[in-house]
Amino acid sequence: MPPSQPPPSPDHPVAVLSRVADDVADVIKGYEAMADRSDAETGPVIQRLLVLHQAHAADLFEQAEQMGGYSEGSGAVMGIVRQAVATARDWFDSADQPTLADICTGERRLIETYDAAILDARAQADLRAMMEDQRAAIRAQVAALES
User: Fold this and answer.
1) pLDDT in tens, 103-119
2) Distance, CA of 97 to CA of 124 (rounded, Å)
3) Helix residue spans in 67-124 (DSSP H)
4) What whole-number distance in Å separates Cα of residue 24 and Cα of residue 82?
5) Beta strands in 29-75 (DSSP E)
């Protein structure tokens, strides 16, 4: 049996991708849970952001897989799913019906995840560029919601 590999350092490209991908997966789970509680104002916003984050997650997980890594969010373990939903609910600070302010707060927290990951990926130009593009798309959505 081969010796086990130590986990990658926090600034290793796979670890950076995994952190962002896990947080995006958490947000997706949160939006899926929120969709049932949304109203005419928040429903279309949730659907638009859900599609955006699903596309981002696909790119992040594909990139991590190509680099030989994985993300905790890629597993189908129910404990991970329950934790993701709970985390996303905490992110959005909404126990009942989501509001646009809750959505913006959650998106800003996700932007912070991207900010940290982009700093950690400073030596990986392609990875950094992908995350900068995704962060810019999220920022544009938040700016539109706040205007």
Assistant:
1) 999 999 999 999 999 99
2) 40
3) 78-92, 100-120
4) 15
5) none
What CA–CA distance (Å, rounded) separates 71 from 13?
12
Rounded average pLDDT over 127-147: 96
Asked if 28 and 138 touch (Cβ cutoff 8 Å), the reply is no
Amino acid letter, residue 129: A
Query: How do residues 6-53 score in pLDDT, each as one tens digit?
Result: 555 666 788 888 889 989 999 999 899 888 888 888 899 999 999 999
Residue 93 zone, left/alpha/beta (φ > 0; ψ -120 to 50; rest) = left
Distance CA 30, CA 36 (A): 11
> Would the pTM count as exceeding 0.70?
yes
User: 29 to each of 2, 92, 113, 122, how far by Cα in Å?
Assistant: 36, 12, 17, 29
